[in-house]
Design brief:
It is a single chain. By secondary structure, the protein is an all-alpha fold. It has twelve helices and two strands; from the N terminus they run αααααβααααβααα. α3 runs antiparallel to α4, α10 packs across α11 and α10 packs across α12. The two termini are about 20 Å apart.
Length: about 300
């Protein structure tokens, strides 16, 4: 069951934090911990978007490129545009990029892995040609929303948690959440029940893009400059967190809360190794082992379900 997976991930996280409390209590110093959570807040929002896409039995590996494009757009607009309008523009730009993916997948019926691989390369290379690797300078009032660093960090974390909680509630309580699960579980059965798989898939991709735009702004406010290479590897981090947290890669099963726990576990490993004075090269190996265990658990669960089914 998904709840069992979430409990297992939560237990592993608690165990890791317990080890740190005993052997590396410096990990829990307020400012470094706050900085770590702030850095990972945009990845949490991206993970929510990726979780929705996987739930409809699709994949989006272009979210890192969308994130980079929206971040650069924020840098271009920030000097002469109020922050709320920058935020709205970036969310809109992300939604358009996601809608392009969604239209090709849902209506043209192209495989999502092919579509998003293509848009990932196109967006990333177009950005490289336009920027030539140059950072985009941001005005002073943009960083941390024009507030102090502590207040800005708190605002970034609060925004990410609020978005995550809102989507977790919506997926559990609203008809739209049930539609997404239904399409991911069995698109044909969903269609016979009056749900449009194409429109649902399209909406999810557009929503994932909008969340990428929001995440890009929350990342941009953390620095005086925007890096056009930002978001590299974000898609892998988000997909891994969702799968580890119990979002079934075959779609239709899983909860946003699980994806949240998965991201917390995976992103705690690197600073934990640093504080425990373990070679940081072990990080990827440990993350890979956790991902393989999660996928293997899904496979065993499916086999047991098929064996029990008449």
């Amino acid at each position: 069951m998904r709840i069992s997976r979430e409990c297992s991930v939560a237990a592993a996280l608690v165990l890791l934090l317990g080890v740190l409390a005993v052997f590396a209590p410096a990990f829990f110093k307020p400012q470094p911990l706050l900085s770590h959570l702030t850095r990972e807040a945009p990845a949490l929002i991206a993970t929510v978007g990726i979780a929705l896409v996987i739930l409809v039995r699709q994949i989006d590996i272009s979210i890192g490129s969308q994130f980079a494009v929206c971040g650069v757009c924020a840098g271009w607009l920030a000097p002469h545009t109020p922050l709320p309008m920058v935020l709205a523009a970036c969310i809109g730009a992300g939604a358009l990029l996601g809608a392009l993916n969604g239209a090709l997948v849902a209506f043209v019926r192209l495989p999502s892995i092919v579509v998003t691989l293509g848009t990932m390369v196109i967006l990333r290379e177009s950005l490289r040609l336009v920027q030539q690797g140059q950072f985009v300078n941001l005005p002073g009032g943009f960083q941390w929303f024009g507030a102090s660093q502590a207040a800005g960090q708190t605002a970034v974390i609060a925004a990410a948690l609020a978005i995550t909680a809102a989507f977790a509630w919506a997926m559990a309580s609203l008809a739209a959440g049930r539609f997404i699960h239904a399409v991911g579980s069995d698109a044909e059965a969903a269609r016979l029940a009056g749900i449009s798989p194409s429109r649902t898939t399209f909406a999810v991709f557009a929503l994932c893009g909008a969340l990428a735009g929001l995440a890009a702004v929350l990342n941009a406010v953390q620095s005086p400059q925007v890096d056009p290479k930002a978001g590299t590897g974000l898609e892998l981090k988000a997909i891994a967190a969702a799968v580890v947290g119990g979002i079934a890669i075959t779609g239709g099963r899983g909860r946003i809360a699980g994806a949240f726990l998965g991201l917390l576990l995976l992103t705690t490993i690197n600073p934990a190794l640093t504080h425990l004075r373990v070679d940081a090269y072990w990080e990827k190996a440990i993350q890979g082992a956790i991902i393989l265990l999660a996928v293997a658990a899904d496979g065993l669960q499916r086999r047991r379900a098929h064996a029990v089914a008449p």
